Amino acid sequence: GKVRAPTHIISTISDDRGEEPCYAGVPMSSIIEQGYGVGDVISLLWFKRSLPRYCTKFIEICIMLCADHGPCVSGAHNSIVTARAGKDLVSSLVSGLLTIGPRFGGAIDDAARYFKDACDRNLTPYEFVEGMKKKGIRVPGIGHRIKSRDNRDKRVELLQKFARSNFPAVKYMEYAVQVETYTLSKANNLVMNVDGAIGSLFLDLLAGSGMFTKQEIDEIVQIGYLNGLFVLARSIGLIGHTFDQKRLKQPLYRHPWEDVLYTK
Ligand code: ACO
Ligand code: LMR
């Protein structure tokens, strides 16, 4: 009989062996002919299924809204400094990407994890927030350096507005809003940030689409897919900042002495 040699790699998302490449079984020609967008491609390659249009539109809105936030944030700053040190595009891009983490842009998965756990356990916002405080953990998805009660993050508002009119239910988002109401009673800058909005709304997307089992949702949250949205989105801006510095022929960056507190 035939002997099947063991393979060194298992892959389930794409196949390039036929006449045309397929993403999750969908041939490239269908992707183009049916007018799929980048949200559809993400849903095929990350979630291995075609999601309804409102879901892929939501993914695309996340990508567009998180593409950039000016030159002063950690990621852009790193990319700018790296480009000005004469480094190439990929080095400048990854230098910026490496700042994405628990404080900056990479709090989406933890926001989804903690909001899901707290909401599923019916914790009141008070119990949840004070419980986190006791554990010494900042609530992921809450807080911002420049946004506050009177200067809300427009991106959060836009995401919530889209979900309210397109998602079948926004249970986790409403929970996150209640948490925000409580944290705002403690301090003005403890607003829901874009990571918190995407984290909570993606839980609603996964649960409301009817396309995922409970186990699949748990796996997505546990593996941590959602920071990928910010990484992908912000790459657009970081690449833009790199080109911008090169176009402007900016010299090597050196931070001014006056802006450093030299102390023992
Ligand atoms: N949960 C609970 N308390 C908080 C939180 C939070 N998420 N954020 C701030 N505080 C409180 C703390 O008591 C903090 O005091 P501490 O330093 O003794 O812990 C106090 O507010 C002071 O905070 P600030 O100095 O005003 O906050 P900072 O500007 O340093 O931090 C940051 C902003 C990093 C976003 C912070 O709020 C945080 O860690 N949030 C959670 C992580 C997160 O969601 N990051 C994504 C931000 S959005 C983005 O990057 C695209
Ligand atoms: C961002 O999207 O980069 C911001 O929310 C972070 C910031 O401090 O503005």
Q: What descriptors fit this protein?
A:
mainly alpha, binds acetyl coenzyme *A, binds (2S)-2-hydroxybutanedioic acid
What report would you give on this structure?
The protein has twelve helices and three strands; from the N terminus they run βββαααααααααααα. The protein is mainly α and 264 residues long. A hairpin with a 2-residue loop joins strand 2 and strand 3. Strands 1-2-3 form a three-stranded antiparallel β-sheet. Helix content is 55%, strand content 2%. The protein is globular. Helix 3 packs across helix 12 and helix 4 packs antiparallel against helix 5. The model has no long low-confidence stretch (mean pLDDT 97). The structure holds acetyl coenzyme *A and (2S)-2-hydroxybutanedioic acid (LMR). The site of (2S)-2-hydroxybutanedioic acid (LMR) has 5 residues, from loops.
Strand elements, count: 3
Helix content bin:
55-70%
Give the ordered list of helices and strands. Answer: EEEHHHHHHHHHHHH
Report the C-alpha radius of gyration, rounded: 21 Å
The secondary-structure class comes to: mainly alpha
